[in-house]
Amino acid sequence: MFGIAGQGNGSNHKPFRRIGGDVSLNWQTFNLHGMFMSGWDDKEFDSGATEAYKFTGGFAELDYAGLVNNRMVASAVFNWVTPPDSDKERKVSAFSAMLRYYLGDWTAVNVALHAEYTHREEGKSVKFKSDQLAMLIDFDF
């Protein structure tokens, strides 16, 4: 039995595969992190599919920690999912940038100012674009 969005109830026990790799490179207070994955789902996962669903995706992220005791952290991330040509309208790519500044004594930092922006595009021939901005004070105890 399949739901409206094509999700199965798990009773068919059909195969799926995921393979990929990741890398993390550090230099001083910079970190470059990336991941790539390829996936394959049996056609039985989608009630109307005539062939297996093959896709790729991943992300690349650059992080920086700076100022005294690395109180400021900045990140930039690009991520994507590329579906097969038969489902090209589900293609997704997004870019996010984040800036975080920790307040207080570094031995017990529990308050930070946080700002984050994300631009997301979905679809191939007709693109749906969205932008999100978040600014907040973060309390961790």
Written description of the protein model:
The protein is mostly beta strands and 141 residues long. It has one domain (16-139). The chain is 0% helix and 60% strand. A hairpin with a 2-residue loop joins strand 1 (16-27) and strand 2. It is elongated. The model has no long low-confidence stretch (mean pLDDT 85).
List the helices and strands and how they pair.
Elements: E1 16-27, E2 30-41, E3 53-66, E4 72-82, E5 92-103, E6 111-122, E7 128-139
Antiparallel strand pairs: 1-2, 2-3, 3-4, 4-5, 5-6, 6-7
Summed up, the helix count is: 0
In the residues, how many domains can be counted? 1
- Radius of gyration, taken over Cα atoms and rounded to an integer in Å: 20 Å
Give the helix level as a range of percent: under 10%
Major beta sheet summary: 7 strands, antiparallel
Structural class: mainly beta
In what range is the share of β-strand residues? over 45%
The succession of helices and strands, N to C, reads: EEEEEEE
Measure the end-to-end span. Answer: 45 Å
Overall pLDDT metric: 85
- Principal-axis shape equals elongated
Number of strands: 7
Low-confidence stretches: none
Strand order of the largest sheet: 1-2-3-4-5-6-7
